[in-house]
Amino acid sequence: MTIEGQPWLLDTGSPSSFGDAGVITLDGQKFPVASDYMGLSGKLLSGYLGQSVAGLIGADILNSIDVVVDIGRGLVTFSRDSFDLQGEVLQMEEFMSIPIIAVKIGDQVHRMFFDTGAQISYFQDDALSSFPTRGVLKDFFPGMGEFETQTHDVPAGIGSMDFMLRCGCLPGLLGMTLGLANAVGVVGNEVCAGHKVGYFARRGILVFD
Question: pTM surpassing 0.70?
Answer without folding.
Answer: yes
